[in-house]
Amino acid sequence: MKHKISPIDAILREHSVMILDGALATELERHGCNLDDPLWSARVLLENPEVIYQVHSDYFRAGADCAITASYQATVEGFALRGIQEKEALELIRKTVLLAREARDEFWKEEEYQTIRPKPLVAASVGPYGAYLADGSEYVGNYGVSDETLTAFHRSRISALIEAGADILAFETIPSLQEAKVLHSLLKDYPEVYAWLSFSLKNEKAISDGTLLEECTRLFGDSEQIAAIGINCAPVSGITEAIQVLRSNTHKPIIVYPNSGETYNPENKTWHGQESCNRLDLKSEEWHHAGARLIGGCCRTAPHHIADISRKWRPSVVVSS
Known about the structure:
alpha/beta
């Protein structure tokens, strides 16, 4: 690995910020998709994959340097509950990468972009075990299962996403140190592959299972394959303090992509409270000053939020929202 640089580092050598996309599920719902299902956005893979392609395209045009695939809740076990056999399930998981790659490659044919912004990456989402449980436990993390169970759960999906040609893996919304360790161990089986690691938070100083963010950051700080480390799906209000903890404990690029600030109720799968992400462009400046280099949005954010960030950091790039 030492002779290579990660896809993230390649972008950050040329740009002060790498701009991530925003929420996929929010946009799928806006396009008329029904996600009231344990498969969540993975349901659309079965019914309306062309809408996933469209949402990826929308985010690229809004200025995103990265598409996060629709595989967060796409798992062999989840599809099996729908009567879908493993072979077809793995094909659907690979399809999440292919849809994002097709959208990226079609977008990149427009030569006007090629000299003023980086070629976008495709980050294959590897959501936590709790996402498969579909009970909100990705925000708690105490699953009560063994390392072996988590390893078996994640292995085939990771392999399929890599085979499909993802540029990088996104270990995201990880709520527990146990699961982070399992994912990192699996990553070592693919020594040429990079991943980012982003945690869900209990508060500004601890991840969801209560482990100190400082401890998590230090533990993975020397991994050659972890290309960035940070947090996602946390409210905007706590991001700056969390970045300061991260910055004090690692030299790796720091990644943040918060949710809208609303609160998710896993029982009825609804969001409540007040949105606090309307000026992500201004917040992104604060976060960058604190040490973040990869910035985007998570649940309930939209292309117009990403376009605001892009206008802030890439004023010469024409974006649509």
